[in-house]
Design goal:
The complex is a heterodimer. Helix content of chain A is 80%, strand content 0%. By secondary structure, chain A is mainly alpha-helical. Chain A has 2 domains: 37 residues; 210 residues, Orthogonal Bundle (MetI-like fold), CATH 1.10.3720.10. By secondary structure, chain B is of the alpha/beta class. Chain B has a domain of 78 residues. Chain B has 8 helices and 10 strands. In chain B, strand 7, helix 5 and strand 8 form a beta-alpha-beta unit. In chain B, helix 2 packs across helix 3 and helix 2 runs parallel beside helix 4. The termini of chain B are far apart. The chains are: A mainly alpha, B alpha/beta.
């Protein structure tokens, strides 16, 4: 895709966004009562007030904190587990049915249990997010470790590399693209975990706040908070894309030359 | 003088649970220090098996292999191995790929030392200016040059080469063959080279070893008396080249006929 085509795509995107917002704004009132769908202008007004009063930040921080800490734990443990189980075939064979069984559980279903076990504080949300992220990253890392080129590993052997050297210089870099796939899908899922955890029981946080406002039929506030979640996910994904682009700069540029939309 | 590489009655069987394949059998071969020996034979004759055993990737099932008078038991990092595929690390630019062997614990060097060596070698094979390119940005011939100098970078006295020019087009192959001849004349390392291309074998080698069809045996050893340094375009015009070529190609054809006949009856 050339430069012209790229800007055309961007242009159409912007037009589409404006059209959706305009349609929403115009429909709200004459067609559908604002009570049901609020309106973009109401949401923006609400957001401005909430940001100014510090209310928005007060609820965003604990959610982002739970999501970020859980994300870090989940992905670090997944990378370690993926490398160990990718390396020791026997260990993987033993662990496989157990991991598959846990993988099969919709993790969200465990949220109420985690509240009982770990309390209504941030710990229960962190555990939930870690578990979700772990499985998303782990299977990617495992796939990556197992698919490292045998020729490259043999080359390292012939050059006299130790196992640690092969791990550092071949297995890790070869697995990085797979790790990033896991990290990318984990971002929205980490937010889901944190928000759902807060739905169950919390005294602060975006999930808590959405729950509260919805129970009062304050659609404007609820949608404003959803907008915050969306903004957090989009910016984190954009940041990760930047990091990925830099770390994996050795990869041939194929497919989508304009880069990711985010 | 102790041969650099010595194979005595080497055989190798593959497979398990009743169905075994005998890849090579009874191979005797000596390679003197500084000698360039080329093994040529039809595909599937076990040439690569021989090379992999010399490298220590797996042991022979019969006989023994000595490198510098010592029994081979496992991979020997003093021996260089140039593979058919370039096997460069795609996440490293060229200069970093050449530096790789010198970074390893078995032969640790300082970063300045290995950078200087790598750059000198890259310049030597005419790739100056490409130091900071990734492998995927280069042609197959360029990548194979890097593969070769990566092996030369740590100065092994014995180099094994498994059809290093196999995947290249004819023109690039000619250029790289000449470069290899030049490099070899400067450094005089012991080389055990494998190919299925008889012309290449005679042009490069001091000695050409013809292997039979599976199970691979040494069918003939021919000394190439064409003087060095050799220039590829001249070598192929040399009457000695043609004499050797005719004799050996007859042998190889016989092998191929037997193989085809064997396949038809078996």
């Amino acid at each position: 895709m050339g430069r012209g085509a790229y800007w055309r795509v961007v242009g159409i995107r912007v037009l589409l966004l404006v059209a959706i917002i305009a349609a929403w704004e115009l429909a709200s009132g004459p067609l559908i009562k604002p009570f049901w769908i609020s309106s973009p202008s109401r949401i923006v007004t609400y957001l401005m007030t909430a940001i100014e009063s510090g209310e928005a930040l007060r609820h965003t921080l604990p959610t982002v904190q739970a999501a970020a800490v859980g994300y870090a734990w989940g992905s670090v443990l997944a990378v370690i587990a993926g490398f160990i189980l990718g390396r020791y075939e026997q260990a993987w064979r033993v662990a496989e049915p157990f991991l598959m069984a846990v993988q099969g559980i919709p993790k969200i279903a465990l949220a109420p249990l985690f509240i009982i076990w770990f309390g209504i504080g941030i710990t229960s949300k962190i555990v939930l997010v870690s578990l979700i992220v772990f499985f998303l990253v782990f299977f990617n890392v495992l796939g990556g470790v197992k698919s490292v080129s045998v020729d490259l590993k043999n080359t390292m052997r012939l050059l006299g590399a130790s196992e640690m050297e092969t791990l550092r210089k071949v297995v890790l870099p070869a697995t990085l693209p797979w790790i990033f796939v896991g990290l990318r899908v984990s971002i929205p899922n980490a937010m889901i975990g944190a928000v759902v955890g807060e739905f169950m029981a919390a005294s602060r946080g975006l999930g808590y706040s959405i729950q509260l406002h919805t129970s009062r039929f304050d659609i404007t506030a609820a949608l404003a908070l959803v907008t915050i979640i969306m903004a957090v996910v989009i910016s984190c994904t954009a940041l990760l894309s930047r990091i990925e682009g830099w770390v994996l700069r050795w990869r041939p540029k194929v497919g989508n030359p304009q880069g990711s939309a985010l | 003088m102790t041969p650099s590489i010595s194979l005595r009655g080497v055989g190798r069987r593959f497979g398990s649970r009743g169905s075994t394949v005998e890849a090579v059998t009874g191979v005797d071969l000596d390679v003197a220090p500084g000698e360039f020996v080329v093994i040529v034979g039809p595909s599937g004759c076990g040439k690569s098996t021989v090379l992999n055993m010399v490298a220590g990737l797996f042991p022979p099932t019969s006989g023994e292999i000595l490198v510098d008078g010592r029994l081979v038991s496992g991979v020997n990092p003093q021996v260089g191995y140039v593979t058919q595929q370039d096997n460069l690390l795609p996440w490293r630019v060229l200069v970093e790929n050449v530096e790789l062997p010198m970074e390893l614990g078995v032969r640790k060097t300082t970063p300045q030392e290995r950078r200087a060596r790598a750059l000198a070698l890259i310049e030597r094979v005419g790739l100056k200016g490409f130091e900071n390119h990734y492998p995927h940005e280069l042609s197959g011939g360029m990548r194979q040059r890097i593969n070769i100098i990566r092996t030369l970078s740590y100065n092994p006295q014995i180099i094994l080469m498994d059809e290093p020019f196999g995947p290249l087009d004819a023109m690039t192959r000619g250029v790289l063959q000449q470069e290899l001849l030049n490099l070899w004349s400067e450094q005089r390392k012991t080389v055990l080279f494998i190919t299925h291309d008889l012309m290449e074998a005679i042009a490069l080698g001091d000695k050409v070893v013809v292997m039979s069809a599976r199970p691979g045996r040494v069918k003939a050893v021919e000394t190439v008396d064409i003087p060095r340094p050799r220039v590829l375009s001249e070598v192929t015009k040399d009457p000695r080249f043609h004499r050797i070529h005719d004799r050996l190609s007859d042998l190889i054809w016989q092998e191929l006929h037997q193989q085809v006949a064997g396949a038809a009856h078996g």
